[in-house]
Specification:
This protein is an alpha+beta fold and 112 residues long. It is 35% helix and 25% strand. The longest helix is centred in the first third of the chain and has 23 residues. The protein is globular.
């Protein structure tokens, strides 16, 4: 019974984490059939802004500094590399942003 009580107390702290954790990691995804159509800009602070996602899906915020990633991080360098390779080849790319209804960081890039 002591183990159950101890675990029960831990569960009280774990439940909010389980409920709130996935919501914080939720993403909105967009597929662009030709990555070369994406307009982007990189700043001196190493932020890469994807400037025209709304032209592929009108539910995304309109132009220009709404969706970004930090190209100075390992993930950001990978994102930029994938974006440039897909754009050069005119291939599809899938982009995930934390929330398309607000200014958001890009948290997924790929082709799935």
């Amino acid at each position: 019974m002591k183990i159950l009580l101890c675990n029960g107390v831990k569960l009280l702290f774990l439940i909010p984490v389980l409920l709130l954790g996935p919501a914080a990691q939720a993403s909105d995804f967009l597929r662009v059939e030709d990555a070369s159509q994406i307009k982007w800009q990189i700043t001196s602070q190493n932020r890469v802004y994807l400037r025209n996602l709304h032209t592929f899906d009108a539910t995304y915020l309109a132009c220009c500094y709404n969706y970004w990633f930090d190209a100075s991080t390992g993930a950001g360098k990978s994102f930029l590399s994938v974006l440039l390779a897909k754009a050069a080849a005119g291939q599809p790319i899938d982009i995930g942003v934390i929330d398309k209804t607000i200014v958001s960081e890009v948290n997924y890039v790929g082709d799935w």
